[in-house]
């Protein structure tokens, strides 16, 4: 039987993973706060631990947790960071 | 070298059963193994039908053995004019297997002693004229290959072919094209009827979380699945268009742990055109357009858009309204301006407004004696929505006022805006009384005696009128928060 699919059947190619860094020493790490309560507490601690291992960190904040990050934030993270840590919360 | 024809006993369309031995008891028998689905079998039956009387007169018994149920065999014999014996062989076609059939039609000539003395596979006029005592027609084609015999099929193919064990509705469940309730299979014919000539490839937008291209055809498939009639389709399209507005944040609503579903309020002439209910039982079951339009939007979000419950939809409890919720505002009964007119649309236009909302909470009041009192009762019901101490909500509360409550306000001379403002003013608490459990940053920071309202502004209170003519039961929907999700209105793009 010939049915019309409700789905978008386009096949998506999986994006290859970015190369893994050998270590954290000297790495530039973006910390993205999705702007949900207490996410900053989680990222504060992560930031402490990363700095103790020789990484430099930079904080970014999404406008609202329930929507995709603004393209400008994504672009800045991609241009200026080696790694990104995104802090979900609640 | 001749081979013994395997004995069989098969049911006949004239009743009872027939043994092979009875067929060749007095002379040779010609067995025609055929099936309904095979065009060459139909051709063979049509070509042999005119000479069956001559063959019979020549002492040959002609019997068609259908690899089909009796009723199908009888129908095909009647349509092809075949007047010989008609037998039906049931699955799994052991007789065909015993005859080692590879394809249909296969014609086997059996002599009086039960030996196979000739066999023709497919339609082959020359071979048949040589085998039989009567010549077959000279009409082309002289030869035509047939189809695989069903005894060679695997079990799954047989199920799909015969309908035995194949159930279209179960097939939809197996594909996952459902919300858990039975659906109408979206056959191409049904989807085309739903589209009503509109371009199936028209793109309405991309829907998160799947970032799927939402085309009219996919919306039509969901509308068919949901059980919509084609005349409901433009309302579904408008609801999908509204949901795709970035300020509705359908992707956020689709995946959140909140219980949020989507509520569709319809205004304007389309309500009457499609029979959408805004009266007795407006928020519940009983009316096909109400049930299926809301469900169609939900299927677009959960199937096409990828927000399927338990997968990317992580709603902790969800709510029954997430099956779909659509109702008409009863503009004719309402004493006030209808919702779409309030939102800037011409009152004569047909408009849908979508809301992200939790389940409705009923509000009974049969005794209030002033508009202030009734407004306070309605507003206080909303005080517990989301959480009893989450003030202000920072989102929209959709109130559905029953006709009796609305009429009381009108008799007291109150406009909808006065009701809204009275509710806004009435529902306030000192900050200190709200400072327990989880509360808002505003309450945490406020002085103890500062009054905090349930809403940040009167405009966060939306009022529509619907429900039965008797019964002082209104309702308020719980809000959708943290999504920056605004109610969105769209005109119905066409009315059929």
Question: What would a concise description of this structure say?
Answer:
The complex is a heterodimer of chains A (about 90) and B (about 500). With about 90 residues, chain A is of the alpha/beta class.
Strand adjacency order, main sheet of chain A = 2-1-3
How much of the sequence lies in strands of chain A comes to 15-25%
Strand content of chain B: 15-25%
Structural class of chain B: alpha+beta
Please state the overall shape of chain B, judged from the principal axes of the Cα atoms: elongated
The major β-sheet of chain B equals: 7 strands, mixed
Radius of gyration computed on alpha carbons of chain A: 17 Å
Description:
The complex is a heterodimer of chains A (90) and B (496). Chain A is an alpha/beta fold. Chain A has helices at residues 39-52, 71-80; strands at 28-33, 56-61, 83-87. Chain A is extended, with a radius of gyration of 17 Å. The mean pLDDT of chain A is 88. By secondary structure, chain B is an alpha+beta fold. In chain B, the strands form seven sheets. In chain B, strands 15, 16, 17, 18, 21, 22 and 23 form a seven-stranded mixed beta sheet that branches. A six-stranded mixed beta sheet of chain B has the order 1-9-8-4-5-6. In chain B, helix 9 (188-195) crosses helix 10, helix 10 packs across helix 11 and helix 16 (371-382) crosses helix 18 (416-426). Chain B is elongated. Chain B starts with a strand and ends in a 5-residue tail after the last strand. The relative contact order of chain B is 0.10. The chains are: A alpha/beta (90), B alpha+beta (496). At the A-B interface, loops of A face helix 8, strand 14, helix 10 and helix 14 of B.
